[in-house]
Design a protein that fits this description.
The complex is a heterodimer of chains A (644) and B (318). Chain A is mostly beta strands. In chain A, the strands form 5 sheets. Chain A has a 22-stranded antiparallel beta barrel. Chain A has a 5-stranded mixed beta sheet with strand order 1-6-7-4-5. Chain A is globular. Chain B has 318 residues and is α/β, with parallel strands linked by helices. Chain B is 44% helix and 19% strand. Classes of the chains: A mainly beta (644), B alpha/beta (318). Chains A and B meet through α2 of A and α2, α5, α8, α9 and α10 of B.
């Protein structure tokens, strides 16, 4: 229906003359309030598929959970997700893996911030510390557990982590926070957001310093800045614009090879991300996303004087443009189609040539959700992806059926196939020790005929929800068969011997995992997740050891005499990071107490967080100098002030 | 030889002419006696045309005939036509009609109740009879809709800005009639919206939107719908546009429904060639609609709008 003429001169004049934030007050109220065209806020792309109808198990980490956890690093929040392991090496390099297969450069999950991949294609991992997003800016984190390549592409072999930042309209006004604590921890977090005539924006700044393990080689300092703007070009057109910069100086290494104590890395990354949404009537929508990310690492690897210098410097960038069409007009059939062109480029240390290596990626994905009746949902999805670097074309399909016999119960059965691209590093590496240009020793040489890693997965899921009890349970049993897994092999050619990458082991992982959210009493809630895993590899015992047999996360929050009190407990059975020499485990108890109060000028929060109270977390990567890293008992205090 | 047509006798021709003249006179006097109703439009936008079209269609089914004129508020101000009833459509039209020194009865359409009461209370109507078929739906009906759609709902949240059109006492009374409780929060600026929703999040089962230039105005609606969705709160709205924007369900009357009901009430108000001014009332024709995509995403199984309306009319508990 054509409605009130928003574009009438009177309305436009009023809109221009009135300051932002003071809505065009019509006194008395006119019919315009009832018939004016409104922006389509909750369009199809903003609506999440409910857990009982979703094609995969999804863990949603909300703002209240992030705040209650007391974690101060983005990656640590993933400890709440069943089956996740988070490890830190040298105090600055974090790794998060799902269902084991834990290694220093985990490459089997796709990680996206507001739809922008933060997966580093050069080494095939994510530099968590370099993501310029403050925890305060995160709206929620959705973790798709299980192969999701059909939706998010090759790197989503084991799942996807979607990090969504808060809409700029939710962070209006100013915020300042200071935090200080053990191990020289210090953080200043500033944010300011405001409305404009047709949207809003936010600018954030973080300066942070810490020594995670209190060792000599893990001091890290970060400075980050991030911007997000949300603008409305019309009632049907939205534009999101983000940019960010992050600069870190980290003792230790960012390339995985720590040679001596005083080694350090300077890391710089920046990005631009734009998303344009055009909403059509009846649940149809176009999305056009463009983003560019660059990173550079400066890292000297000092060697004995007689050897030629070896550089740990690298530069990498990724540019992507994606066009998607969503159609949810029909109650029985929903569909989406998406095409993306991406170019990754990298100049790596110790690669075969000094030029940039390029990987041009073309992908096409589609998904259908068919609801033949209120009790049944069927999902069909597939992604076709072509990489120029490896000249491999991969198809990742997924078929899932949901059965909802009642409001409370839902069952899910699905099969999926996924593949993961090998990193530019793995495809192009040639590490040598040389003297005067003459090879003394060849350390690593890439293989030219590597196949993508592949996974076949079968799962059976169960979802239970009972709003009156405040209970929401999601459980699944699954079997993953990974093959063509890329492994390191020592190869000898004559007198020359070196490490190279081969498609070697085959690994099977069986598991049962669940997550439970229970809202009890008035403002109390509890999150509990557990996983039991079993693995078998015919070829490589290292992969078996990298799968923890059991993980548990518990986070509970409840008011306590005017304070917000929360307790977190995180446990894993001993596991060994791939190629490590020592076992790692968590058994960690955290407590947080926060006091909120208001003054005439704004809102205050003072918080005390005590971590690893039982002082037994061992988060060692067990390599080189990283062995026996203890995350010892520590505490932080923080003071936050928000004003309008 | 073909038969020639028979000539009509002269007497029969005179009789026919006399009958035709009588009929013409009867039609003319009837037309002149038909109540003159002047519709005064706030604008020439399709919104107002929809009301006029539906109203005219309803009156055209009345064999007694109506003398219906349509004017914009500017034309109305510059002309001096006689009318038995002036029907301003929209607030601007009502304001211009009330500004005229005239005693013709006024029956307003497409004007919210609060605005009508504000205008007729503040403006000296100089004894002029005024009434309205309100644009908005009564609060008690909104409460019944919430009860029909979300039977487990006990507490309804409402955000009230400094210029909200709804009084908290009226909200509470309407809620109590449906065995619900209102929890309201005051917002003075758009920056207050998200903190206010956060403060209500554990207190309420659903949020009811009421017309408010701050809460549902420029900038505010975006934050409000995004944040309520993230909190998993269903939102009940008062217009089709707000439903499409992302509310979970809505109760409203369309311009066509208001026009048709206005025509029907005019017919009932006519006694012979005179008109009795209808009493102020809310439209009995209304829509209950559900945003299916939002409801499913919130894991809410809400019946269709038709089923909800039946539940409301029959006042049956699901």
């Amino acid at each position: 229906m054509s409605g009130w003429p928003r574009s009438s001169p009177t309305w436009m004049l009023a809109a221009l003359l009135l300051p932002a934030g003071q809505a065009a007050a019509l006194d008395p109220l006119s019919e315009a309030e009832y018939f004016a065209d409104q922006p389509l806020v909750l369009s199809a792309s903003r609506l999440a598929t409910p857990a009982n109808r979703a094609p995969a198990a999804v863990s949603v980490i909300t703002r209240e959970m992030i705040e209650a956890s007391g974690f101060r690093h983005l990656v640590d929040v993933l400890r709440l997700v069943p089956g996740f392991i988070v490890g830190w090496s040298g105090g600055n390099t974090a790794a998060a893996t799902y269902l084991g297969l834990s290694e220093q450069f985990p490459h089997r999950m796709q990680i996206m911030v507001d739809g922008r991949s933060v997966y580093d294609p050069s080494f095939g991992h994510t530099v968590w510390r370099g993501i310029p997003v403050a925890l305060d800016e995160v709206e929620r984190i959705e973790v798709v557990r299980g192969p999701n390549a059909a939706h998010d592409g090759l790197n989503a072999m084991m799942g996807t982590i979607h990090i969504y930042t808060r809409h700029s309209s939710a962070t209006l006004g100013g915020m300042g926070e200071v935090a200080a604590g053990s191990r020289d921890y210090g953080e200043v977090n500033l944010r300011y957001g405001a409305l404009t005539a047709n949207g809003g924006w936010r600018l954030g700044f973080i300066a942070r310093e810490d020594e995670r393990h209190g060792l000599d080689h893990d001091h890290a300092r970060d400075v980050q800045i991030g911007f997000r703007g949300d603008f409305r070009a019309s009632a049907r057109d939205d534009l999101m614009l983000e940019f960010g910069l992050s600069r870190g100086r980290w003792q230790g290494t960012n390339i995985g090879n720590l040679v001596y104590d005083d080694q350090h890395a300077q890391y710089l990354t920046g990005h631009v991300n734009t998303l344009w949404k055009h909403v059509l009537p009846e649940g149809r929508e176009w999305l056009l996303q463009f983003n560019h990310t660059f990173s550079q690492n400066q890292e000297a690897i000092p060697l004995p004087a007689f050897l030629d210098p070896l550089s740990g410097d690298y530069r990498t960038s990724g540019t992507a443009i994606e066009l998607s069409y969503l159609d949810s007009a029909s109650a029985t059939l929903k569909s989406s189609l998406s095409g993306e062109y991406r170019v990754n480029r990298a100049r790596l240390p110790m690669q075969r040539s000094n030029d940039y290596d390029y990987d041009h990626i073309l992908s096409l994905s589609g998904a259908l959700e068919w609801n033949p009746s209120s009790e049944w949902v069927m999902h069909f999805g597939a992604m076709l992806e072509r990489h120029s670097d490896t000249r491999v074309t991969s198809l990742s399909p997924r078929v899932v059926v949901n059965w909802l016999p009642s409001d409370a119960h839902a069952f899910r059965m699905g099969v999926a196939h996924g593949e993961t691209a090998t990193s530019i590093y793995v495809n192009n590496i040639d590490v040598r020790l040389t003297v005067g240009g003459v090879t003394l020793d060849r350390i690593f040489l890439s293989s030219v005929d590597l196949e993508p890693e592949k996974i076949n997965s079968v799962e059976l899921g169960y979802h239970f929800t009972q709003p009156e009890w405040g209970v929401n349970l999601d459980a699944r049993v699954f079997h993953n068969h990974l093959y063509n897994v890329v492994d390191v092999e020592r190869r000898s050619v004559g007198v020359d011997s070196y490490n190279t990458y081969v498609n070697h082991p085959s690994i099977e992982v069986w598991g049962l995992e669940y997550q439970l959210k229970w809202r009890f009493a008035h403002k109390g809630w509890l999150w509990l997740s557990q996983s039991w895993l079993s693995s078998h590899s015919s070829d490589d015992v290292n992969y078996e050891r990298s799968v923890p047999g059991y993980t548990l996360s518990l986070l509970a929050s409840h008011p306590l005499g005017g304070l917000d009190a929360s307790v977190g407990y995180y446990y894993t059975e001993p596991m060994r990071w791939y190629a490590g020499r020592y076992d790692s485990k968590y058994n960690r108890l955290d407590v947080r107490l926060a006091k909120n109060w208001k003054t005439a000028g704004g809102k205050w929060q003072a918080a005390l967080t005590l971590q690893s109270l039982n002082d037994v977390e061992d988060e060692s990567f067990s390599e080189y100098l990283y062995k026996h890293q203890k995350y010892q008992r520590r505490g932080y205090v923080s003071l936050k002030y928000e004003f309008h | 030889m073909a038969n020639l047509p028979r000539r009509s006798p002269p007497r029969a021709g005179k009789f026919a002419a006399w009958i035709a003249a009588c009929l013409l006179l009867t039609w003319m006097t009837g037309a002149l006696a038909a109540p003159a109703v002047t519709l005064v439009l706030s604008d020439d936008a399709p919104l107002y045309a929809g009301v006029v079209r539906a109203l005219r269609a309803e009156l055209e089914t009345d064999r007694r005939g109506w003398n219906l004129r349509v004017r914009t508020w500017r034309e109305y101000q510059s002309g001096e036509e006689h009318a038995d009833l002036v029907v301003p459509v929209g607030l601007r039209a009502l304001q211009s009609v009330l500004a005229e020194r005239d005693n013709t009865p006024v029956w307003a359409l497409l004007v919210p109740r609060a605005s009508f009461e504000q205008l007729t209370g503040n403006t000296s109507t100089r004894g002029r009879p005024v009434s309205a078929l309100y644009l908005d739906q009564p609060l008690s009906r909104h409460m019944r809709m919430l009860k029909a759609a979300l039977p487990r709902t006990r507490k309804i949240g409402v955000l009230l800005g400094p210029e909200s059109s709804v009084r908290p006492e009226a909200l509470r009374a309407a809620a109590e009639s449906a065995h619900l409780k209102i929890v309201s929060a005051r917002v003075d600026t758009i920056e207050d919206l998200v903190p206010a929703l956060n403060s209500l999040r554990n207190e309420i089962d659903a949020l009811l939107l009421v017309p408010d230039p701050l809460v549902v105005g420029r900038g505010g609606l975006h934050a409000l719908l995004l944040h309520t969705y993230q909190l998993g709160l269903p939102v009940a709205a008062y217009s089709a546009q707000l439903l499409e924007a992302g509310s979970t369900l809505a109760l409203f009357a369309t311009p066509e429904q208001i026009g048709a009901e206005a025509g029907s009430r005019l017919r009932q108000a006519r006694g012979g060639n005179s008109l009795v001014l209808p009493t102020p009332d809310h439209s009995q024709n209304f829509e209950v609609a559900v945003n299916r995509n939002v409801a499913v995403s919130l894991e809410l199984r809400i019946p269709s709008g038709e089923v909800l309306r039946l539940r409301m009319e029959r006042s049956i508990e699901p």
